[in-house]
Amino acid sequence: MELYRSHVLICGGTGCTSSGSKNIEEVFRAELSKYNLTNEVKLVRTGCFGLCEAGPIVIIYPEGAFYSHVKVKDVTRITEEHLLKGRIVTDLLFKESVVDSKVRSINEVDFYKKQQRVALRNCGVINPEDITEYIAFDGYRALGKVLTELQPEDVIEIVKKSGLRGRGGGGFPTGLKWEFTYRAQGDQKYVACNADEGDPGAFMDRSVLEGDPHAVIEAMAIAGYAVGADQGYIYVRAEYPIAVHRLQIAIDQAKEYGLLGKNIFGTEFSFDLEIRLGAGAFVCGEETALLNSIEGKRGMPRPRPPFPAVKGLWQKPTLLNNVETYANIPQIILKGPEWFAGIGTEKSKGTKVFALGGKINNTGLLEIPMGTTLREVIFEVGGGIPDGKAFKAVQTGGPSGGCITADYLDTPIDYDNLIALGSMMGSGGMIVMDEDNCMVDIARFFLDFTVDESCGKCTPCREGTKRMLEILEKITEGKGTPADIEKLESLANTIKSSSLCGLGQTAPNPVLSTLRYFRNEYDAHVHEKRCPAGVCQALLSYLIIPEACKKCGICANKCPVGCIDGVKGKEAYKIRQEQCIKCGACMEACPFKAIERK
Amino acid sequence: MITITINDQKVQVENSSTILQAAEQLGIRIPTFCHDKRLVPHGACRICVVEVEGARNLMTACTTPVAEGMVLYTDSDKVAKTRKEILELMIENHPLDCLTCEKAGDCKLQDYCYQYDVKEGPFHGVKKSYKVDDTNLFYTNNQNKCILCGKCVRVCNELQCTGAIGQFERGFDTHVGAPFDKGMEHSNCVSCGNCVSVCPVGALMPKSKERFRYWETQKVRTTCSYCGVGCQMDLVVKDNKIVDVKPAEGPANDGLLCVKGKFGYNFVNHPDRLKTPLIKKNGRFKEATWDEAYALIVDKIKNTKDRYGADALAGLSSARCTNEENYLMQKLFRAVIGTNNIDHCARL
């Protein structure tokens, strides 16, 4: 095995790739060969490091130097100074990496300090396109152990004991699901992986597939052995080209190494895996719709029962777990269920990956032990709210979840606590909102999403979400009545209790939770025709403060509809409200800040 | 058998039955749109929801199997309120043209709206607006009236096995049509009309020449005369005239018909229809009685057989006859007339 004195890890996640990490890698390669360092320094294109805000990211070991926002022109300096002369280029490091002019390693940065990486263990560490790197990090050892030392019942017992719950959103105990599928009668069984991650702003599963695809493959083979399946399907959305590409490479390599296919590890067990591409429908993340889609049918949910464990793909018992759930499995087998159950809270074990976004300093991907509080996540790991604005709420669970207010920031994150607050864990999207966000508008935004993504099969979801959206639009346009709020609430409860699948049953959550915590904002829109956060355009008006107006006329020139009158140099300008389209161009243009929005 | 409690009434039911089947046994009526016992359970319309103790949400009676000790309510306040709201959502997106709609009187949406006292949609939101597709010769597809129960698509796929229609777009824009939304004439529809027969509302309607209201008609159960299968059907009759045909549940057809049985009934009342045998006399056909006709046939057969032998005769039987009739026909030719010259139109 070749030894290198330095490893340069370049993030190859979607975020960093789109901000140019591929070019950076190429320039690094050229520089290394220019200085004859190819035998001393190894260049690795890894999966996501998590702190997407700071991308493109380059990390150099053994120092753990964390270079952020790296540009192509920085590469020569890093090569010449750091790799050639051993001097860390401090001004290119991530801002928090330098404290009192001392350089801290990536692991000491706030964003990473509280994190515990189980599912993301290898993301940002190994080259996901090289199976030997995964194997070097204990890869496929768990599968070997399972196949040669354990009976299927033992494996199921281990997963049950670990307390692992489904990471796709539902939080169903994974071991039980495995047991149901194991017990189900069938001449053929299947294992499937749900990689149809669709919540806006969520990219946990994508990062696992991009950064550590073999972990999922290994876990699916383990699951196949446990439940008695010899065929697996990974249903991944076509909008994740890097994930699909790396997954295919990983499957091919695993087959080449005999870790997929016939008689794995020389045992009787055979297992094959295929990718199925989704066409981008959110509802196909719902398990029965996903199964329909794999079968080539229209992506619409089926009634449950029967559950997939009994009648899944082609009516055969099918085990369906989410990417992140699988990513935990090899670790649980290797380190033991007690180790995993030792992390987290009483009813929610292990860690959870969250995609943190919205009004937050450190946008990115993080993995924390269950039981970490929302405050720790938002203010320590996430670095708080930008521009000194006040925190207002955090939306967990994406469009199926709800918002949680500042009063509940010290709630330890676990499945049951979030549900008790009217939200849910979901797949792990976490969108932070500050004082500038209008909660009625947020509810409208999420409803807009679910209306778009409803499959159209059942009446409450197809027709009901549309009517809810219409009411919300009415309210944000200032045309709402008190009766509308009542209708909204009643309809939300009906949709929740009578829809066919999880999409419809949770679609009203953003409305119900904003109604629960921010009813005053709804009331302000309806009774006072006022948007407290100043977001809903129809409820705003732009006013020129006469005393501040310098009579320059710039605003009148900029106004696209010509509704600002005045005489240049003589008379303060005025906006004719009835014609104003509230575009805000005048306010932006005024050099004297003489225009206010109310 | 297991014991469950429906509306405070303890009953024994088959353990493989659904809540809907169990309720039917007790004579408890649960409204349904998308349910059809011949089809794979669909659970789409949600009108059959019932309250099951211990369940997080309301459950659809048509898809949920009963379980030992299950306690359920089919008409609690919550159930009634939910059904009413579902109907409101349907009628909100449906034309209020019952006064001129030909389905009136035979429309489940109308019936349930009456039952649950729903006059109109309460939201005053947008309504769908599709062009009526009348490119099929026998029926029209008016998606403005469709409630997307999916029965038409499922009958076409699961029972008729033609796969001519499907659902397109999603969410609020979901609608039923032919592939690529090109219109029914471009589909591989065989015009069996089974989709029309299962439509609970006025979305798929026969192109009828008659104007009638369902309450002016009466149903006459009969066997389809087009072929030997023996499909059962109900003729819908107004003033002694057939105005529509609906498939009935018979052992041979299980509620299905083909294009002839479903739509080919106009000959019955046609003025050109032959109602008595005709015998040619002096170069012209004249009406005759059956006795006269039989006598003539027997006479001709006898004469031919005497003059040219039995093999000069041949019998050709019809697919419109039953198996039994076909059997008798060949028996007549082989045993009575004495020839093996017997064949059947289905072989031609």
Automatic annotation (TrEMBL), chain A:
Keyword Iron tagged: yes
Domain of life where this protein originates: Bacteria
Pfam families referenced in this protein's UniProt entry, alphabetically: 2Fe-2S_thioredx (PF01257), Complex1_51K (PF01512), Fer4 (PF00037), NADH_4Fe-4S (PF10589), SLBB (PF10531)
Annotated 4Fe-4S ferredoxin-type domain residues: 540-569, 571-598
GO MF term (any one): 4 iron, 4 sulfur cluster binding
Family listed: Belongs to the complex I 51 kDa subunit family.
Annotated protein name in UniProt: NAD(P)-dependent iron-only hydrogenase diaphorase component flavoprotein
The species this protein was found in: Geosporobacter subterraneus DSM 17957
Automatic annotation (TrEMBL), chain B:
GO cellular component: membrane
All residue ranges annotated as the 4Fe-4S ferredoxin-type domain in the record: 137-167, 180-209
Superkingdom to which the source organism belongs: Bacteria
Domain 4Fe-4S Mo/W bis-MGD-type: 217-272
One function term, GO molecular function aspect: NADH dehydrogenase activity
UniProt domain 4Fe-4S His(Cys)3-ligated-type: residue ranges: 78-117
InterPro entries named among the record's database cross-references: 2Fe-2S_ferredoxin-like_sf (IPR036010), 2Fe-2S_ferredoxin-type (IPR001041), 4Fe4S_Fe-S-bd (IPR017896), 4Fe4S_Fe_S_CS (IPR017900), Mopterin_OxRdtase (IPR006656), Mopterin_OxRdtase_4Fe-4S_dom (IPR006963), MopterinOxRdtase_cofactor_BS (IPR027467), NADH_UbQ_OxRdtase_ferredoxin (IPR054351)
A biological-process GO annotation: respiratory electron transport chain
Protein name (Swiss-Prot/TrEMBL): 4Fe-4S dicluster domain-containing protein
Organism, scientific name: Geosporobacter subterraneus DSM 17957
